[in-house]
Known about the structure:
This protein is an alpha+beta fold. The chain has two domains: 4-42 and 144-205 and 310-358, 3-Layer(bba) Sandwich (FAD/NAD(P)-binding domain); 87-135 and 208-306, D-Amino Acid Oxidase, Chain A, domain 2 (2-Layer Sandwich). The protein is built from eight helices and 19 strands. The protein has helices spanning 14-25, 57-77, 92-102, 114-120, 142-153, 194-200, 271-288, 334-347, and strands at residues 4-10, 30-33, 47-50, 87-90, 110-111, 131-134, 138-141, 157-158, 164-168, 171-175, 180-188, 208-219, 228-231, 241-245, 251-256, 260-261, 292-306, 314-319, 322-327. Helix 1 (14-25) links the parallel strand 1 (4-10) and strand 2 (30-33). It is globular, with a radius of gyration of 20 Å. The N and C termini lie far apart (48 Å). The mean pLDDT is 96. It binds flavin-adenine dinucleotide. The site of flavin-adenine dinucleotide has 37 residues, from helix 1, strand 3, strand 12, strand 14 and strand 17.
Amino acid sequence: MTNTSDVAIIGAGIVGLSAAHALLARGASVTVYESGRPGLGQSAGQSRIFRHAHDDPRLVGLAVRARRQWREWEDAWGVRLVSEDGGLALGPSAVRRLPHLEDHPEIGARLVDGDELRSLLPILAPYDGGAVFDPGGGSIATRTAIEQLAGVVGDRLVDEQVITVRDHAGGVEVRTPTTVSTHGALVVCAGRGTAALARALSVAIPVELGAHVRVSYALREAPERLPTLQDSSGFFGTAGVYAAAYPDRSAFGLGLSDSVSAHDDGAIDDVDALAASATNADAYVSRALPGLAQDPIGIVHCWVTQLPWGEDGVAIWQSGNSYLLAGHNLFKHAPVLGETLADCVAAGAVPEPFRPADRLGRDG
Ligand SMILES: Cc1cc2nc3c(=O)[nH]c(=O)nc-3n(C[C@H](O)[C@H](O)[C@H](O)COP(=O)(O)OP(=O)(O)OC[C@H]3O[C@@H](n4cnc5c(N)ncnc54)[C@H](O)[C@@H]3O)c2cc1C
C-alpha cells in the first residue's frame, strides 16, 4: 500500500477537481488520480457556454446555484471565470424554455427583437425570429478554471491511471500500474473512463459515447462584448449550433450539437461524419456569422458521454462508499456537482435529484 487518504477521486477534469476543492474545504484529505493532464479530457478547449436555460426546470435552479458559486470563486481567486457578456439563444426551443427562466427573476432572461439582437451580437447576420437573452450567461474561461482548481489540489494529484477499484475493509481499494492504495471513499469523475471503472463495482452506467468537433474562428474586429450563441432555429440552414468566445474575445469556438456515435472502446465507424461536422460548422459561419473570418484557426475533438434521458442528463451512481458521476454538458454545473459529490461522501448517500431514477436533465 503506497497511499491512503479519506477520499480517492479518479479524474482531474472540471468535475473531479471541483469535487476535490469541495472535499478539501470540508477538511477531508484527498488523492486525485489522473492518467493524462488535468483538463485535457472532455474539459479540453478554450471556453464553454454558461447558460441558465434547460428543458428540466431542476437544472435551471442548479445553474442559478452554480453561477453564484462561479462568482464566489472569482472573488476568492481574483480571476474572471465566466464572462459578463451574457448568452443568446435563437429559435423555438429557446422561447419554450423562457417560462422556466422567468421562475427565477434574478436571472433576468428576456425576449429580444431583431434590433436588440444586432446590438448584442453585431457579428450575426440579420435574424428576426424568436430570441432570448440570458444576461447571467457567458463564456467560461475553461483553462483558468482548471489551473486554479489544480493549484488548490497541488501535490495531492497523482499522475497514474487507475486500472481497477474494489470495496475493501469498509473502504475502497484503488489499483494503478505501480500502486495499491486504500481510501475511505471513492469519487469517480473519469469522463469517458467512468463506465468502465463502474463495471468493476458491478454498476452499469447507460452512457452513450459520441465524438464531437468544435471549430474556432477569429473575429474580424474585436467587439466590446461577445455573448455566447445557441441557435436551434434552422434559419441559417443548420440547427443545433452553439458557440462561445475565447476568454480574450479574439475568437469564437463553434460546434454542432449532434455527435458521431462511437463504440465503448472509442472506435468510430463513421469518420466521414466527423469531418462533415467540421465542414457544416464552416458553412454555418459563412451564412450566419459574417463578423467572423471564414478560415478556421483551431479544432477540438472531444468525447461526449450522454445519458439516455437527455443531452443535459446527469446522475450519480452509488456502490458502497463509491460515487460515480456521469452525464453531458457538465462544465457550467461543476461547482455544484463538486459540492454534491462531497455531500454524498459526508452523508453516505446520493441526494435527490441526483439519483439515476430522478432522471435529472431530462429532455422536455
Ligand atoms: C466539444 C464540447 C463542447 C462542450 N460544450 C459545453 C458547454 O458549452 N457547456 C457545458 O457546460 N459543457 C459543455 N461540454 C461538456 C463538458 O465539457 C463536459 O461535460 C465536462 O468537461 C466533463 O468534465 P469531467 O470532469 O466530467 O470529465 P473530463 O474532463 O473528461 O475529466 C475526466 C478525467 O479523467 C481522466 N481519467 C479517465 N479514466 C481514468 C483512469 N482510469 N485513471 C485516471 N484518470 C482517468 C481523464 O484523463 C480525464 O482527464 C462540452 C463538451 C464537448 C466535448
